[in-house]
Write a structure and sequence with these properties.
The complex is a heterodimer of chains A (337) and B (135).
Chain A lengths: L1 H10 L3 H13 L1 H11 L7 E7 L5 H14 L4 E7 L8 E3 L14 E7 L11 H11 L3 E5 L16 E6 L7 H4 L9 E4 L7 H17 L10 H7 L4 E3 L8 H17 L2 H30 L6 H10 L5 H17 L3
Parallel strand pairs in A: 1-5, 1-6, 2-4, 2-5, 6-7, 7-8
Chain B lengths: L9 E5 L8 H12 L3 E4 L6 H11 L3 E6 L4 H14 L6 E6 L3 H10 L3 E3 L5 H11 L3
Parallel strand pairs in B: 1-2, 1-3, 3-4, 4-5
Helix pairs in contact in B: 2-3
Classes of the chains: A alpha/beta (337), B alpha/beta (135).
């Protein structure tokens, strides 16, 4: 079968097989499942960096510089660059490679552009599968560059070992730094375009936001252990000019000291717990959704029309029908459909 | 049971060589996006190596090359040579920009399949891609 042949080539380092497997995982749940079965045992060695921030803050440009630094250190790096899918046409224009051309003929670098295919949260459904595949291939680092985010797309924080939030001067007053969401889900703040007016003020605003963090007891339901880890890690704020490369070596040192923090204080276990909990939720949701879609599709299940008629004629209510259909979903899952 | 409903046509749009005219490539990239395809745009001044590496990494169904500098007879054969070295034979390759009629037969022999110069209706390019995919 096709996947097995690709996996064999993949295991001897064939980059095209790597690329084909990513496409298969991206296009279907079934293939993603088979690929995970083959490759997941080989994973667990890559260090995952997340880079997020609003559109135009310089995520791709910064990624390019970090990639360069990693290969200069003699290590291998995979990049997952995510851009949005059009809600109207379902198409996408993926333009992150434009800023990465310095590096993409280097055999220690592999850059893959992904459309988010309508998924909210800053990443694509298959991003986790691409991480598995790249990790199994033997990359030392995997960089996830999210779509240009607003204030609440925080998924990458649940996946990456170290998450960098990029900001640039001139995007609002200090209240922006105090808002909930993305500003809370950062291991490191990067103020890019440091030569613009307002960069120092921006650093000050973030620092004063962080000062308050130390004093307030927070309870976080989704990332239950992060309160504990935040106590011992105050995110540094680093000014850079990603295009010219200013501040990049200092930023890398901070990434490395966060890595040291993650790997030495049991933080890794918390991060893994969150990461795989989210991943399981993801897979389960998708698995159930496929089954639900089938049951709601009159072509697959003609009796759904009667169920809906019963609702429109007020002979049944939507909750009772949902209850009935829910049982069928579970039955069909048990039958391994 | 069909579960891979999410397959999208992936297209790499590349500008090879020392040619700064990318309006056409951008218009085509936009049209393909609006036709529901996932378009990877590489930007200007791509070497044949960079283009073939992009194809390896992005795994597109289609490669669109736009060139207006007149260097097609030097650059396209080099791209096809590298594609061959990497055993890539299931990608549909189209040329845009200015390719004189007289040069086309030879490029077709190398494996370039469609020629869509200035003035081609965008729908024609979209339809051509949909009807000529190799996988």
């Amino acid at each position: 079968m096709e996947i097995q042949a690709l996996v064999d080539k993949f295991k001897v380092g064939n980059r095209r097989a790597l690329s084909r497997l990513i496409s298969l995982a991206e296009n279907g749940f079934k293939d993603a499942r088979l690929i995970s079965k083959e490759l997941f045992p080989l994973t667990g060695n890559a260090y995952i960096l997340g880079i997020t921030g609003a559109p135009g803050t310089g995520k791709s440009t910064l990624t390019n510089k970090l990639v360069q630094l990693i290969v200069e250190n003699g290590e291998r790096v995979g990049v997952i660059a995510i851009d949005p899918t059009s809600p109207f046409s379902g198409g996408a224009l993926l333009g992150d490679r434009i800023r990465m051309k310095d590096n993409y003929t280097n055999q220690n670098v592999f850059i893959r552009s992904m459309a988010n295919r309508g998924r909210l949260g800053g990443m694509a459904r298959a991003t986790k599968d691409v991480i598995t595949i790249m990790d199994a291939f033997g990359f030392d680092y995997i960089i996830i560059e999210t779509v240009g985010v607003g204030q609440s797309e925080v998924d990458v924080y649940g996946t990456a070992h170290t998450t960098l939030v990029l900001v640039v001067p001139g995007m609002g007053d200090d209240i922006q730094a105090f808002k909930a969401g993305i500003m809370e889900t950062s291991d490191l703040f990067v103020v890019n375009k440091m030569d613009l007016d307002g960069a120092n003020k921006m650093v000050m605003e973030i620092e004063s936001m962080l000062d308050l963090n130390q004093k307030v007891e927070v309870s976080r339901s989704k990332y239950e252990n992060s309160a504990m880890e935040q106590q011992s890690w105050r995110p540094p704020v680093q000014k850079v000019n990603a295009r010219r490369g200013n501040g990049i070596p200092a930023l890398w040192e901070q990434i490395m000291s966060h890595r040291h923090h993650v790997e030495s204080k049991g933080v890794l276990e918390c991060k893994q717990l969150n990461r795989f909990k989210n991943e399981l939720l993801d897979i389960l949701e998708e698995r159930f959704k496929l089954q639900i879609d089938q049951i709601l599709d009159p072509k697959e299940n003609p009796s759904i029309l009667e169920d809906i008629r019963a609702i429109t004629e007020r002979k049944a209510n939507p909750y009772s029908i949902a209850e009935k259909l829910g049982k069928r979903v579970i039955e069909s899952l048990e039958n391994g459909a | 049971m069909e579960m891979s409903e999410q397959r999208k046509i992936r297209v790499v749009v590349a500008k090879p060589g020392l040619d700064g005219h990318d309006r056409g490539a951008k218009v085509v990239a936009r049209a393909l996006r609006d036709a529901g395809m996932e378009v990877i745009y590489t930007g200007l001044h791509q070497t044949p190596r960079q283009i073939v590496e992009t194809v390896i990494q992005e795994d597109p169904d289609v490669l669109c090359l736009s060139i207006l500098s007149g260097a097609h007879n030097a650059i396209f054969p080099r791209i096809m040579e590298l594609m061959g070295e990497n055993e890539i034979d299931d990608v549909l390759i189209l040329a845009g920009g200015v390719i004189p009629e007289a040069d086309r037969a030879e490029l077709k022999d190398l494996g370039l399949e469609g020629f869509h110069g200035p003035g081609t209706p965008l729908k024609e390019i979209v339809d051509y891609i949909r009807n000529h995919l190799k996988r």
